[in-house]
Specification:
Elements lengths: L2 H8 L6 H14 L15 H12 L6 E6 H5 L2 H5 L6 E6 L2 E4 L5 E4 L4 E3 L5 H10 L5 E4 L5 H8 L6 E6 L25 H10 L2 E4 H4 L10
Parallel strand pairs: 1-2, 6-7, 7-8
Antiparallel strand pairs: 2-5, 3-4
C-alpha cells in the first residue's frame, strides 16, 4: 500500500489518534505537488501568513477554520503556520477512549463523522469551540459564506474578507465567469461576489492585490 493509499484508508478505518498523525507526517514528508514539484506544506499563501502574524502581534488570537480534516491539519499547522492544535477547527471523526493491548489509555478514531466543518457547520463549530463570535473572518469560497455572515452580525468593528482566485499564472483562476469557475470544490460563484458587494465585504484579487502568492515566489 502506498503512503497515499494508507492515508486515504486511515480516514475510513479505526486507529489511534497518534497513529493517524504519524501517517500524515510520513505522507507530507514525501508527497510533492504535481505542478510545483514541492511539498504541499510549501504551498501556503504568503499574505495569509503576514495577516496572521500581524493580528497576533496586535493581541488577537488566530484560528484556522477549515472544511478539511481537523486531525490532518493539526499534524502540520504549528510548524507551517505557527497555529497550535487547539486553534484548528475542522471536519472531524469521532474519538473513542479505549485501552490498548498493554493497558495504556488511547484515543481511537472510529469511522464515524463527528463534525462537518463547512457552510453552516463553520459558525456552529466556531461557537462550539470558542463560545464567541469572531471579530474578523477570511474565506475564499461559498463554503465560507455563513461564517462571514456570523462574524458580521456581532456588532462593533468587524472585518470580513474573501480571496478571489483569479491568477492562473501564479496559482489558479476560478473566479466567476472564468473557465475554471465550475469547480466542484471551493467554488466562488457570482452570487457570492454579489453578496460581498451588497454587504461591504472586502474581495481581494489574488492577481491584482498580491505581490507574492507563495513564500518561495520572488520578492
Amino acid at each position: 500500500m502506498t503512503d497515499l493509499e494508507q492515508l486515504v484508508a486511515a480516514t475510513h478505518a479505526g486507529m489511534s489518534t497518534e497513529a493517524f498523525t504519524e501517517i500524515v507526517a510520513a505522507w507530507l514528508s514525501k508527497a510533492r505537488h504535481p505542478r510545483w514539484k514541492r511539498p504541499y506544506t510549501d504551498l501556503i499563501y504568503q499574505p495569509m501568513l503576514e495577516v496572521m502574524q500581524y493580528l497576533r502581534a496586535n493581541g488577537f488570537r488566530t484560528y484556522i477554520v477549515t472544511g478539511g480534516g481537523q486531525a490532518f491539519v493539526r499534524a502540520y499547522a504549528e510548524r507551517v503556520y505557527g497555529t497550535p492544535p487547539e486553534e484548528i477547527i475542522g471536519s472531524s471523526l469521532a474519538t473513542q477512549f479505549e485501552y490498548d493491548a498493554s493497558g495504556e489509555a488511547v484515543l481511537m478514531r472510529p469511522p464515524k463523522l463527528l463534525l462537518f466543518n463547512d457552510e453552516a457547520g463553520k459558525p456552529q463549530d466556531i461557537y462550539l469551540f470558542l463560545g464567541r463570535r469572531p471579530r474578523a473572518a477570511f474565506g475564499n469560497s461559498a463554503g465560507d459564506r455563513q461564517m462571514l455572515e456570523y462574524a458580521q452580525t456581532g456588532g462593533g468593528a468587524r472585518l470580513m474578507a474573501l480571496v478571489l482566485h483569479d491568477d492562473a499564472e501564479r496559482e489558479y483562476d476560478y473566479a466567476p465567469g472564468s473557465k475554471g469557475a465550475d469547480t466542484k470544490v471551493g467554488a466562488f460563484p457570482q452570487a457570492l461576489a454579489d453578496q460581498a458587494k451588497a454587504k461591504g465585504w472586502i474581495v481581494i484579487s489574488m492577481k491584482n492585490d498580491w505581490k507574492r502568492v507563495f513564500p518561495f515566489d520572488p520578492q
